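Hey all, sorry for the wall of text incoming. These are the two entities for the joint prediction.
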Amino acid sequence: MGHRFGYNPERGHNNVTFAFWTEPVGANNVRVMTTSAQISLEKVRHLVIETLPQSAGNSPGEAIFGPGGTLDSLGLVGYLADLEYRIAEIFGREVVLASEAAMSRSRSPFRDVTALSEYIVELLGA
Amino acid sequence: MKSPRVLIITGTSRGIGLGLAEHYLAQGDLVCGCSRAPASLQHPNYSHYELDVSDEKAVVAMVHAVVRQHGRIDGLLNNAGIASMNHALLSPLATARSIFSTNFFGTFLFCREVGKAMVRKKSGRIVNFATVATPLRLEGESLYAASKAAVESFTQVLARELGEAGITVNAIGPTPVPTDLIKNVPKNKMDALLARQAIRRFGAIQDVINVADFFLAPKSSFVTGQIIYLGGVTG
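and here's what came out:
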C-alpha cells in the first residue's frame, strides 16, 4: 500500500498548491481505508521491534529508554523519527509520537516495546 | 555532476523568502516553499505548500510529503516571520500571540520535523532567522525582538542537541531590508536604527543570501550554534 498526499498526480508535483489531506492508496490508485482491524497490536508490535536499531532490544517487554534501556537520548530521537516515518508508510497516518499525551504520563510510553506498541495503537485510535 | 540539494524555505511568497527561493532555484537546487498565500513563483523545481507555519498538522504533513517525494531534506531556511511595531504597553495580547506563533512556534515546528528527517540521514543544515532588533534592544519592537531572542536561544541549544547527528543549526540576523515587513515603520525610526549599525545602509536580499550560502556550504560542517548579524551589529 502506498500513500498519496494532498496533490493531484495528474497535474504533476510542481507549482501546485497542496491541500492537507492524506489518503492511503493501494494498487491502481484505488483508495484503501486503514481500519482499526488493520492497526492491530500485533502488527504495531512487529513494527516497533523491526524498527529498533540492531544494538537495542528486540523482544516484547525489552527496555528501550530509561532504566535498563538500550537507547540514549539521541538514539531515542532517531528511533522515534524512524518509527513515525514507518507508521506513515504502513498505516498512512502521520503522527507525532512525542505528543503532550506521551510526555505528561507518569510512566513513559517509550520505556519498552510493549508500552510503546500499546501507546501507538492508542494514538492511531485502533 | 553533484545532485541538487533539497531545501525547504518558509515564507516564500514575498520578500527575503522569495529572493532565497529564486536564488537556490537558479543554483539548481530543488526548493519546497510554503506560505499562507498561494505560490508567487513558477519553476519546474519548485513545489509550494499553502500553510500556516504554526499549524502543527500542516507542518508535519508538508515535511513528510517532501521526504516522500525527494527521500531527504538537505537544508531548512526558517525565514517566515511577522513584525509589529508598537509600545509594549500598547500591545494587545493577541498581537504577542500572533508574533510568537509565526516567529518562534513556526521555527520550532519546522526545526523539529525537518530535524527528524535529518537525524535519519545524519546530515543537514538548519538556518533560522534572527534580527538585529534583539541585540540593539529597539524601542517599539519588544515583541518582535523577544520572539527572535527565543529563536536565537533555541538555535544555540538545538545546535548542541543535533551536533552529534551531523546537523548544523545557525541563524542570520538581518538588518532592515526594504520588504513588506518594514513598510509601515516611520522613516525617522528607520534612520535611527541604521545609525546604530557599523555600516549605515539598508540590507539587501543578496546580503542575506551570502550568509545563507555560507551556512549551507559543505565546508561549513564545523560551524554551528552561531548567530551572524549583518551591518556590523554585534550581540
